Amino acid sequence: MLQTLSLFLGIWLLFLLLAIYYLSQAPDGRVGRFRESVSEHLSAESRAKALLREMLSENQYQQLIKFGYLEVISPSIDNRIYRIPGSGGLVKVYERGCAVMELCLQPAEPLPDGDVVVMHKLMIEANEEEYLQKANHFAPGIISLRCQHL
Amino acid sequence: MGMLRIMSRRGDERVVWDLEKVETSDSEAVAAIREAERIFNEERARGATAFRVESGKTLERIEKFDRTAEQIVMVPRVVGG
Structural domain boundaries of chain A? Predict the structure, then answer.
């Protein structure tokens, strides 16, 4: 009885291994697709990181790594700072150290996190007026409070 | 050397051209700059914004392809979330 069970288990394992092997080799296989997707994601993230390093000064990059956000000084409004989160979310706006609003603006197509940070930075620094026009404005803390209730 | 960088879900895609070679009518360089200009116009038509980025200079938004730019970064169309 035990021998028969071991034989069935052995055959089942053999089929399982063969199935995994063929799926990973086939270009349209699910495992193959999953592997490609993971590799594509990693490649996109590493390219985004390289762009981020080029576009940010050393101090800005260190701020992003250490605190998880990048602060950009408003080119046209005195004492205003935009705090861009490093991994998605709303951009917080501070004036004289006080939170005055939060902004939501996103690319129409998904981008790696690093590219989104660069996108906000470029738009604020070169095109602040349009950036503010396009973004949805929220009172500070409202979205986070709503999320906490959920 | 000039470079066009287009942000996408795969990270930024790049097209590089050599302006000096373009001016000597080098066929590969001419093809590269034409390709960069074609992509630039195509992305602009889709709503992308272009920025001229040069070390030591003020960041500038541009409407037309600038072959003399050191680097042009294109951001896809953005929407309020």
Answer: 1-55, 57-149
